[in-house]
Amino acid sequence: MISIDPMANKIQIIDAGLGNISSVARMINKVGGTSSICSSPEEINLHGKIIIPGVGSFDHGLSMLYKHGFDNSFWESLKLNKAYILGICLGMHVLCLNSEEGKHPGLGLINAKVKKFRFEEDKNMKIPHMGWNVVRSTRENLLIPKSNEERRFYFVHSYHVVPNDPSITVGISDYGHKFCAAFQKNNIIGVQFHPEKSHRFGMALMKYFVTA
Prior knowledge:
Strand order of the largest sheet: 2-1-3-4-12-11-10-7-8
Shape: globular
CATH architecture: 3-Layer(aba) Sandwich
Helix content: 10-25%
Largest sheet: 9 strands, mixed
CATH superfamily: Class I glutamine amidotransferase (GATase) domain
Oligomer: single chain
Structural class: alpha/beta
């Protein structure tokens, strides 16, 4: 794979108080990368690789990002400099246009909406979707190679991403119906599951990101 930066193995984790920071950092270090935790835009290398981890609600997540100075001009700078951005769970959601969970507009880096799982009563499907589930790669992408190997990741979510352009979906899972478990558009990537909780499959995914 082609390196995008002389410090390609250094991953910058945005710390806006949204959780999972230490778990993500430990996994990066375990697969041979180095991590730095950044709580302000001034600490970010705009040409590097960036992870937005997160658990919690959509509006709170956006509010915390803006509170720490990660405003629209910051995200536009990342787009212009073609930094790789990986959003995990809530981090994936905030990359989108909006969410049924909140009232605030998302960052708008991805043309997609976030919708709540809805099932007929007779399906007896619990919300949130919680636990291990298979993710299948749908096309070539940075993180989930196409192969016959079954890959399982850990999910905890009540909302899921619905891309307006289905071609950006690179991984699908099934919970009552098929849904987008991962997307990639150029340098912008999102995963609905938690690689930092997904053992060897999460480690393999994170290693792909570290060494890209």
